Amino acid sequence: MATDTSTKVEATFAPEVPSPAKGNFDELAAKSAVARAWWQEQFSRHPGQSLVITRVDANGETHLYAILTKSSRDGVDWQLTNFRSDGEPQSHMDFSEEELKRWDTRLVSELPASRPDSHYHAGWANEMVVDKQKPEAKKSSLTTEMISHAKAVSILDVAAKNGINLVHDGGDYWSWDLHDSLKVNTRKNMFTWNSRQISGTTIDFMMKVVGVDNFRKAVTALNDSSLSTTKVTAEERQPFEYDIQNSKDFSRARDYLTLARGLNPSIIDQLHQRGFIQQDNKGNAIFVWARDGERVGASIQGTTIDKQHNGPRGTFKQIAKNSEQDYGFNFTIGHPKQLYVFESPIDALSYLSLHPQTKDTMFFAMDGLKPQSVIKAMVYYHTRTGNAPERVGFGVDNDPAGHRFFDEMVNKHSFENAETGEALPYGHFMVDDLAIPNERLRILQQQAAAANVPWEPLAALDKVETNFHDDKEVNNWFGLKGGFTHSDGSAPGSQYEMRAGQLASLMGELTDQSGLDYQALVKRLDPTLDPTMQQAVIGKLRAYTAQYENGGVKPVQYQIKDWNDRLKQVQNESGFPARLIDRIYANKSQEEGLKVIQERDQDGRDRLKAVQANQLNKGLFEADSPQEMAYLIKTYGYSAVDKEDERKYQRAEGVEHAASQKQEPNLVRQAMQAAAQVER
Questions:
Q1: Which pairing describes strands 338-342 and 361-365: parallel, antiparallel, or unpaired?
Q2: DSSP code, position 196
Q3: Is the pLDDT of residue 39 over 80?
Q4: What is the residue-wise DSSP string for 293-330?
Q5: What is the DSSP string of 462-516?
Q6: Rounded to an integer, what is the distance from CA 321 to the centroid of its chain?
Q7: Residue 81 is inside which H or E element, if any?
Q8: Cα dihedral sign for 510, 512, 516, 519?
Q9: Which of 241, 274, 454, 592 is 20–30 Å from 410 (CA)?
């Protein structure tokens, strides 16, 4: 995306630096005392302005590379946003005012250096308008008043006008019913989309969520008289105070966690006894954030399933007010040698329920996908143990957001062991990462055979680009597109089959005796991709190709996204639904009972329905999963579900450890042993 910043940006350069090119960013990266003094002067001369970094290619075309802007988030002064070649935000980093005044090396390491094919310029701007200017088509100017008004428009109004249904999480917070990681703060009139690591004002909301093309169109749309405005009030973050009223009765939270989510009762009971999981006086499950024996925050998980008010997820989630920023729920098994990071507390506990033999590990939940949370987790790990972890494992979701996050951590937030100088090993254990839907695998193999090329690189390309999803969302942090995201439709069928054939033929053209030329392939698919990103994405393509070639592929009917889904799948395969269906459940206060039947809906999915036992055509409630049905049965006052829940762990003898692939002994005994090792 070309940009015109000539009327908005004042060119600047640091004194006494080796590079002669005025405005070249290499000058700003100098770490001398003179450059540091210059940097401090810049902050005083340009209060509140944005630092705009642009890349100039060899052909003279200018691209937005990054913007350093003032932040409205609590505890964050500045935010550095990097952009892909197509102008879409790629990553964010937060900085304090003091860090930048020191010209901190953490920021310097993020800055680019000029190469033969491109160089970088920097300048300050009051407002950055990213728009390709066409001389023949003059556009009306945006005024400061228009931009200020756009930012003051109520973000709730903006969401409603654009068909985005927000549900109230409590207080100032709302979330999108279709993507609960998108949070709106009405007091600040801002949003944060944790899974995609983006945030901002109503203008950013229009561009990054609604999908408006550019800044100008977003501001124009927000200057609509039908939209109300709101007054943004600043509130200083206060120290966390645990003012949640814990209930003496833990049964509601326990039932939700062990029945609706399928978590191991022994682990939940042990964590409750040690104060890690509580129930408040409203029946919500509270995951307490502990640090050195102190409570510094909490995650609140609703236990009332109400899809009408809470959207498809059924329950609400919220972080307690004033919880320490970028921290999270954590607990330790034994004497930690490794750090495991998850998106949510329930994901972490689901993994432990399936792998109760896990030893010597610190578990940490980010409540989203936040690099700063991983950094804080590693700092805390070092504080607790005096050492760096031998390994950092990421149990994030197997979806585009999870893959983009892991790519970013590996390529942008790696750490070295201070003693050995070796890079800290990062690894992920995403559920079903080597799974390929049966129909897609058939088409990929068929089209590769027709082009006389191996199917594995073709499958690796689909994996890296789309993760075999039909929505064609880019699945990698590097920004690679142009392969399977190029076709008009990527659902299995004629369009997908046609595109797979075209790509297989292209691979044939780029293959010689030494094999496929991955670099040529990536350049043909996405010529605008940054050279550094090219090499990183080639490494990822080669890695998946090698795994498929070594027999790692797993044909499946459908992909599992997270560890809680895997836990439910294991329970269902062990016969849990069969024990639930066609039984009569007695009501504790009435004579009539209910019966669970299974019906197939118009989409071909099996759903469970609770009906009155003596009047089968009288429906009582429905559930999306056997676990949810078990929870609803008990919640509505019917008996005998909890006993079956306890027994299912004794019957699940076939669970395998992902690493050892050996059959485990009694799951209950191991779970109790693992839970007994939990420490604060």
A1: parallel
A2: G
A3: no
A4: TEEEEEEEE-----HHHH-TT-S-EEEPTTPPTT---E
A5: HHHHHTT-TT----STT---SSTTSSS--STTHHHHHHHHHHHHHHHHTEETTEE
A6: 22
A7: strand 78-83
A8: negative
A9: 454
Reading the block at residue 283, the tokens are 């029946």
Give the span between the Cα atoms of 656 and 665, in whole angstroms. 10
Tokens representing 510 are 């780029």
Closest CA to 503 of 465, 542, 549: 465
Question: Are the C-beta atoms of residues 276 and 291 closer than 8 Å to each other?
Answer: no
Q: What percent of the chain stands above pLDDT 90?
A: 36
Residue 16 β-bridge partners: none
Q: Is the pLDDT of residue 88 over 90?
A: no
3-state secondary structure of 56: strand
Considering Cα of 592, then 596, then 600, then 606, what sign does the dihedral take? positive
CA pair distance 237, 320, nearest whole angstrom: 12
What is the sign of the dihedral through the CA atoms of 236, 241, 246 and 250? positive
Residue pair 118/130 in contact by the 8 Å Cβ criterion: no
Residue 246, number of CB atoms within 10 A of its CB:
14
User: How far apart (Å, rounded) are the C-alpha atoms in residues 619 and 610?
Assistant: 6
d(CA 76, CA 73) in angstroms, rounded, equals 6
Given a cut of 70, whether residue 242 has pLDDT beyond it is yes
- Which one has a higher pLDDT value, 331 or 142? 331
pLDDT confidence of 17, banded at 50, 70, 90? Answer: very low
- Three-state SS at 50: strand
pLDDT score, position 90: 62
* Residue 8 · residue 127 · CB < 8 Å: yes
- Highest mean pLDDT, choosing among 95-109, 158-172, 523-537: 523-537
CB 90 within 8 A of CB 479: yes
Tens-place pLDDT, residues 307-359:
776 667 788 888 888 899 889 999 999 999 999 999 999 999 999 999 999 99
Distance CA(241)–CA(323), nearest Å, equals: 8
Tokens of 267: 């682990």
Quick one: average pLDDT of 655-678?
42
